[in-house]
Each structure stands twice: as C-alpha cells, then as structure tokens.
Amino acid sequence: MNTRISVILLLFSLLSFKPSSELTVNGIVYNQADQLGIAGVSVLIEGTTIGTLTDAKGRYTIKLTPGAKFLIFSKLGFESKRVAIGAGKQLDVTLIPSVALQEITVVEHAHVKKRGAQTLMAYSPGLHVRPPSSPFYMQHLPSTEDYQKIKENGFVSPKKEPLSTFAVDVDGASYSNIRRFINNGQLPPKDAIRLEEMINYFQYNLPAPQNNEPVAIHTELSQAPWNPHHRLLRIALKAKAIDAAKLPPANLVFLIDVSGSMDGPNRLPLVKSSLKMLVDQLRKEDRVAIVTYAGTARIKLAPVWANEKMRIKNAIDELDAGGSTAGGAGLKMAYDLAREHFKKDGNNRIILASDGDFNVGPSSNEDMETLIEKERQSGVSLSVLGFGMVNLKDSKMELLANKGHGNYAYIDNLMEAKRAMISEFGATFFTVAKDVKMQVEFNPAKVEAYRLLGYENRLLNQEDFNNDQKLGGDMGTGHIVTAFYEIVPKGIKEPYIGSVDPLKYQPEKSAFVAKTSDELLTVKFRYKEPKEDKSKMKQVGVLDKPMQLAETSDDFRFASAIAEFAMLLRNSDFKQQANYDALINRAKSARGADSTGYRAEFIRLAESAKLLAKSNDIAAKE
C-alpha cells in the first residue's frame, strides 16, 4: 500500500512540474568599478551553446533549457563569472574588471624599456594610464578603422541595362568582423557590412560539379520575403572538392606584421596560434618561409620543408611586436622569396597576417594596388588574414586579397582561426577555378526592374565579362558562392525604380522584347583553370516559375535571412518590409543539421542585433 501511494504521489509531482525550458531569466550586468550596466556581455547557459548578449544598458533576457543550473557571464576585459540560476526570474550580476586592466599611476619620466617579449611604458609624473595592450584600452581608444565606401546597388530597368556583370567573392571577412562588433555590444559601421560576404561565410548543401568540371551552377526562384510582390533569385556556384592528400604541393610564405600596432592579446598572439594551426595541416612536400616587417622587412625563416614543424613553430613563437609598419617592403620581399622557390605545378602563395595599418614607405591603397598588379603576374597568390580592432584597415586588406588572386578572412577569436586554418583549409588556400565572373541577362518582357544584392565593390562593365585580362574572383576547393537578385515582375510599378524623361535630340533606343520566351533571365559564368589564361563559359536559363517560399530549400531561406539581416544593419533604402522577427523565425526554421553550430550562432547574433537596434532607438528618443 505504501509503495502504491508513493508511486501516485510521484506521478502527481511529475504532472505538476514545469520544466525549466519554460522559465525565462532576466537581469542587468553591472561593472563593479562604476556600477554602470555593461553592454555586450556574453550570457551562456553552462554546458550548452545557447546564450545571448546584454544590450547597451547591460540588460539581458534568456530562456532556460531543461536542467539548466548555471549561467556563465563573460566579456573581454572582465573576469568571467559562473552564477547559480536559483528560483527567481531576476538575476543581476556584477563583473570585476581584469586585474591587468586596472588603472596605474606611473611616477617615472617618459621612457620605454624592453623586458623579454613585454614592453613596459612609463609616462610623466602623476599621469593615469591603462596598459596599452589591454583589450579594455584598445576598445576605448578612438577608432581609426577604415572601410571602403559602399554605394548600395539600386533597381535597374532591363530596357536600359539588360546585363548585370560582377566578379564573384568567396570572402567571409565581413561576417566575422560584424560578429565582433555585435558581441562587443555595438552595431557595426554601415560600410563594414558587405552583404555577399555575410552570405558566403556559410556552407550550403549543393550537388558537386560533374564530369570533372571545376564549377557547377544552381538556381532557385521564389518570392522576396521582405516584399511578396517581388521575386528573389538565388544563383549558387559550387567548386569541386579535392582530397587533401591530392592537393598540389605548396610553396608558402608567411608574411607577418610585427609592428607596434600588432601588440595586444587579440593580435600577434592570435596570429601565432592561427599560423601554428596552419602548420599542423601542411605535408612533408610543402615548403614554408617566414618574412616579418615592422620598421623594415626581414627573412625570419628561410624556406624549409613543412615536416620541420617544431622549427617553424619555434620561429613563430619568437616573434615580438614593436616599431613602425613597412608593409610595402614586406610584400616585396615575400614576393621575391616566393618567386625564388616557385613550384611550377604547385600552390605558390603568400599568407599575410596583419591589421593593415601600413605607415612606412608605399602605404596607400593606390600604392598597394600598383604593387600587387605588378607582382601577381608571377603566378604567386596572396591570401590575407586580418586581425585586431580599433585600427583595422579593412579597405586595404580586402583590396590586397582581391587584386592578389586570393581571399580575405578576419580572425576575431581562436575558433575563427580554427575554421580558417583547419575546417576550410583547402578552400582558403588552394584554388580550383580563378577569375570567376558572372553575367545575368534579364528578359524585359518578364522583368520590370532588378537589383543585385551586394557585390558593390566587385561590379564589372558588361564588356569585362569576355575580357580575360579583367580579374574575377578565385574559388578554392569546395567553395560555394551565392548571389541574390531581387526582381520586380513586369507590370508592377514601384516608386524607387525611377524614370527618365524622353530624349529630345535623338530617338529612344528600343530594346528587343522576347515576348515568346518563357525565360525570366539567363545566367552565364566564366572561369579559368588554375594554370590556364583562357576562360571557359557556361550558361543556364531560368524559367519564370517561382516556388512558394515555404517550398524552397533550407539553404535558400537561411541565406535570404542573412540578406535581410544585412539590409536591416545597413538601414538599406531597399529594406521595404524587412524585420528582425521575420528573418530570425525563417533562419530558425531553415537551420537544418548545423553540425558546426554556425547557423545557431547567426540566429543568436541576429537576436542580439535586434536588442541593440531597439536599445539604440529608445536611447535616441530619450
């Protein structure tokens, strides 16, 4: 009888129990030093990847998972804290600034001493300073970051411009850079947002090329989520994947910026960790050299076989930051070294690790473009790894990679380094198709207007498509490139399309209208084999048969959510009905298997940006 009563009581208790997944905890994270709320604090459920960020006033809200017992609070410049959740719904937390970041008073006169790998700085009596290499100090310096100005693509009539032409872009630097801003409690600068790089950061499930061709093309047409009266076309290129053991031998030159601007925990130490990860991926037939530059350039390690891993890693560990930045001289020396040990059938590549802050010798973007255009004729490619904050010269880094037949990744943390150096090793450093360009011809009988989303700094003249002297983008093994066009169907009038008065002195040029064709458009792309100078062309027609958005692939819906997110971050003139809730819900429904967790991370990032945008709106009204 007692056993039966116990079982009944247990059943009642289970029925009345509400799992913690239904509970929501909120609170404020304060700085112990001034009792003000801290923006951008990571709040993570212990043992999971589920978390959120505090808003501009330090506030957060998080939905608990079953069995959740502790929250982890962390932010660069503060000591992390593990806090028991308890029974209440309000949980306020105070974080302590890291000991290394406390203000110090220096009483000696200004001088600089070198002690091992550490720089000690002293200033005039009574001056309160923070250690210059501390993350807190760097975050609160006036920003000198530099981004290329982006003039967003508008809608175009196919009767005026039937062809849209651009070079593909496989870079993902913009996404990881934007992530850095949002994780630090800030919305990114408008010109830091390159929509195509945000989309191309992610991997998508596409069939591989057939018949040993290097690239395959895929299209998908539906309605635009932010305007159901418009079409949204996804064009995706998939490069063939090559087994790592079959990759051509590599002749690599690590070009490492060791100037004073690279001093700091998220700079040279992160460079060292990243490059050592890369060394671990190399084979005995690969060769590595190291060139460094500060006030001058020098060869730190003459070329050695990659199986001498400890020798290479020791040379990397010995690096120390200090001095000015002779980036141009470093590039010249690296190209000379790469040419000297050139592998005819190999992968000849310079890997530049820097914040892009060149200040000695040739240093302007124009100087760098001239240098790279001359040097790339040698067959040596240039890949760029960007590091640091506050003074990141993003515009220069992107230019170097674009002009140097390479790609650009921004490394904001060790996990991003792992992604670039290990997970996407082949895609990052081994080209299977070069000078890839795309051209789309729109049927004016079906299309009132069209707009290319992103690729503003990769646009080409229509005649450049057939000109093999004009650069395209390079695709590495397994790389995927996605582009979106927003299309206004024929007969739909929109105020932002614009119009031009009839010409007075000459007749209007009438475009031929293919009324009998069911095609909405034709997509063409060109590419060169890695060792060839003559391009090949492929093309595919797209019928005017859009799918319902709910019937499209997970990849289409997820990538469209990223595009919508980018338009909101930019406060685009063409965002129309875009909103955070819609894109977040669509991304959640299209998350798929997500073995890497990157899609879940994007959803959390979008949720954090929504909070920051809302907080900024409230602050502006106050």
Question: Explain this structure to me?
Answer:
- The chain has 622 residues and is an alpha+beta fold.
- Helices cover 26% and strands 27% of the residues.
- It is built from 14 helices and 26 strands.
- The strands form 7 sheets. It has a 6-stranded mixed sheet, with helices on both faces.
- Strand 13 and strand 14 (227-239) form a beta hairpin.
- Helix 5 (268-281) packs antiparallel against helix 6, helix 5 (268-281) runs parallel beside helix 10 and helix 13 (580-589) packs antiparallel against helix 14 (598-621).
- The longest helix has 24 residues, at 598-621.
- It is globular, with a radius of gyration of 27 Å.
- The N and C termini lie far apart (66 Å).
Give the strand order of the largest sheet, numbering strands 1, 2, ... along the chain. Answer: 17-16-15-18-19-20
The description of the largest β-sheet is: 6 strands, mixed
Overall 3D shape:
globular
Uncertain runs are: 11-21, 99-140
Q: Count of DSSP E strands?
A: 26
What is the CA-CA span between the terminal residues?
Answer: 66 Å
Q: Which range does the strand content fall in?
A: 25-35%
Mean pLDDT: 84
The structure class reads alpha+beta
The Rg value, from CA coordinates, equals: 27 Å
Binned, the helix content reads 25-40%
SS summary, helix count: 14
